[in-house]
C-alpha cells in the first residue's frame, strides 16, 4: 500500500484505484469507533486530504455522536429536517421516515427536546451533513453532562495532553473529580508529583515536557511549576530540555 | 459562531456580562419572577445566583434546570429558554463540565 502512494499516481487513472484502496483501508479502521463530539467540532472539521476523513484539532471524525436540543423540525413527508443546537453550534440533519414503522417512532422529535444523535460526517456544498443518523430521546439528563465530558476527553487525548491507554482510568477520574484526590496525589509533595510527571512523559517528549502541560495536568500554577523545576534541576533530578520551558527526567 | 453559549457557573457571571450563556443549576427558592438558583462550581462552595424569569417559563423548586440566559449588568441571569433536567443530577459533573469546557473552549465556543 505504501508503495502505491509513493508511486505518485494520484492523477492518473491507475492511481485512482490505489487511492481508492488506500482510503478504504483507513476507513475500515476508523469506522468501528464512535467519537463523542460537540456540534462545533463537526462544523469546524475539514478533510486533510481530498475525500478523506474529516479532522478537527487532530481528532478524526467519521462516526460521531452528539447531544443537543431540537430547535426546528420541518416535515418533508419522506423525511424530517431537524435543526439541532448544543450550545457550541447548530447543525441541520435529516431523519428518514420509515413508512412501515409504527407511527409513533418519531414523535419525540419535536422542538425543545434533548436528543442523542449518531451518524457519519459528510459535507455537501460547504455545509456539514450527518448521514445514517440515529436519534434517541434523552431522559436522564446526566447523559448531557457525561457526553460533553467524554467529548473533552477524546479531544484532549487527540492533543496528546492525556494518555489514552493505561492512563485512561486516571484521566477519566481527572475529569470528574474536582481536585486531585488523595489517592491520585498519593501523599506526594508537589515537587515529587512534578518529578513523577516529567519521568512519565520524558520518553514521549524528547524535547522536554512543557511546564504549561505540567501545570495543566497537575492543576498547578505555571509559576509554581517553574519554581519547583528550578529546585529539581538543582537536585539533579531533571534537566532543561530543548529550551527553558521544558524539562526531562534524568 | 453567534449561537454558541458558553457554559458557566455563578462564579463566572462577571466575566460574561451581556452575553448569552448556559447555566445548569437547582432551584432553591422562587420569589415571584425571581428565583435563587444553586450552581455547583469548582471555584466556590454553595454558590447561588439570582435568575429573573418570565411567566411562560415554568420552574419548580428542587428541580435542576439548564437555563439559556443573558447575564445582566447587575449580575442576574435573565432566563430565555429552559430545559427541565429533573431531580437527580451529578453536581460534580456539572462543576466539571463548566471547568473543563472553559479549558477546552476551542471545541465549545470561540
Automatic annotation (TrEMBL), chain A:
Pfam family, one: tRNA_anti-codon
BP GO terms, sorted: DNA replication; double-strand break repair via homologous recombination; nucleotide-excision repair
Gene3D superfamilies: Nucleic acid-binding proteins
KW DNA-binding (keyword) present: yes
Protein name stated in the entry: Replication protein A 32 kDa subunit
Domain of life assignment: Eukaryota
Domain Replication protein A C-terminal: 162-245
Keywords associated with the record: DNA replication, DNA-binding, Nucleus
Residue ranges of the region described as Disordered: 1-34
GO molecular function annotation: single-stranded DNA binding
Cellular compartments annotated: Nucleus
InterPro entries to which the protein is assigned, alphabetical: NA-bd_OB-fold, NA-bd_OB_tRNA, RFA2-like, Rfa2/RPA32, RPA_C, WH_DNA-bd_sf
OB domain location: 64-137
Keyword Nucleotide-binding appears in the UniProt entry: no
SUPFAM superfamilies: Nucleic acid-binding proteins, Winged helix' DNA-binding domain
GO CC term, one of those recorded: site of double-strand break
UniProt-listed CDD domains: RPA2_DBD_D (cd04478)
Lineage: Eukaryota, Fungi, Dikarya, Ascomycota, Saccharomycotina
Automatic annotation (TrEMBL), chain B:
Tree of life domain: Eukaryota
Keywords: Nucleus
Protein name: Replication protein A 14 kDa subunit
GO MF terms held by the record: damaged DNA binding; single-stranded DNA binding
Location of the protein in the cell: Nucleus
Record-level GO BP terms: base-excision repair; DNA replication; double-strand break repair via homologous recombination; mismatch repair; nucleotide-excision repair
Broad class of where this protein is predominantly found: nucleus
Keyword Nucleus: yes
Family the UniProt entry places it in: Belongs to the replication factor A protein 3 family.
InterPro entries given in the database record: NA-bd_OB-fold, Rfa2
CC per GO annotation: DNA replication factor A complex; site of double-strand break
Amino acid at each position: 500500500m505504501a508503495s502505491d502512494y509513493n508511486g505518485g499516481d494520484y492523477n492518473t487513472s491507475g492511481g485512482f484505484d490505489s487511492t481508492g484502496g488506500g482510503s478504504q483501508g483507513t476507513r475500515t479502521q476508523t469506522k468501528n469507533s464512535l467519537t463523542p463530539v460537540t456540534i462545533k467540532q463537526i462544523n469546524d472539521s475539514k478533510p486533510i486530504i481530498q475525500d478523506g476523513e474529516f479532522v478537527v484539532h487532530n481528532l478524526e471524525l467519521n462516526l460521531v455522536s452528539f447531544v443537543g436540543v431540537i430547535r426546528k423540525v420541518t416535515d418533508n413527508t419522506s423525511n424530517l429536517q431537524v435543526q439541532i443546537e448544543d450550545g457550541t453550534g447548530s447543525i441541520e440533519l435529516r431523519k428518514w421516515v420509515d413508512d412501515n414503522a409504527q407511527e409513533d417512532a418519531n414523535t419525540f422529535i419535536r422542538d425543545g427536546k434533548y436528543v442523542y444523535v449518531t451518524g457519519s460526517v459528510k459535507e455537501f456544498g460547504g455545509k456539514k451533513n450527518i448521514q445514517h443518523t440515529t436519534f434517541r430521546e434523552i431522559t436522564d439528563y446526566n447523559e448531557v453532562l457525561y457526553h460533553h465530558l467524554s467529548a473533552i476527553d477524546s479531544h484532549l487525548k487527540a492533543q496528546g495532553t492525556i494518555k489514552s491507554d493505561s492512563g485512561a482510568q486516571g484521566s477519566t477520574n481527572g475529569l470528574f473529580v474536582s481536585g486531585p484526590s488523595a489517592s491520585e496525589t498519593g501523599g506526594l509533595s508537589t515537587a515529587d508529583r512534578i518529578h513523577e510527571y516529567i519521568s512519565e512523559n520524558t520518553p514521549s517528549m524528547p524535547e522536554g515536557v512543557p511546564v504549561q502541560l505540567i501545570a495543566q495536568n497537575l492543576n498547578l500554577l505555571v509559576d509554581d511549576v517553574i519554581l519547583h523545576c528550578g529546585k529539581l534541576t538543582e537536585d539533579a533530578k531533571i534537566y532543561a530540555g530543548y529550551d527553558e520551558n521544558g524539562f526531562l527526567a534524568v | 459562531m453567534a449561537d454558541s453559549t458558553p457554559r458557566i457557573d455563578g462564579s463566572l457571571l462577571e466575566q460574561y456580562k451581556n452575553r448569552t450563556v448556559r447555566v445548569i443549576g437547582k432551584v432553591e427558592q422562587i420569589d415571584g419572577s425571581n428565583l435563587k438558583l444553586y450552581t455547583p462550581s469548582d471555584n466556590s462552595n454553595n454558590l447561588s445566583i439570582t435568575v429573573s424569569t418570565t411567566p411562560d417559563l415554568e420552574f419548580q423548586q428542587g428541580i435542576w434546570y439548564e437555563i439559556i440566559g443573558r447575564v445582566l449588568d447587575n449580575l442576574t441571569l435573565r432566563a430565555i429558554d429552559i430545559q427541565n433536567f429533573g431531580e437527580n443530577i451529578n453536581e460534580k459533573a456539572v462543576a466539571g463540565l463548566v471547568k473543563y469546557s472553559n479549558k477546552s473552549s476551542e471545541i465549545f465556543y470561540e
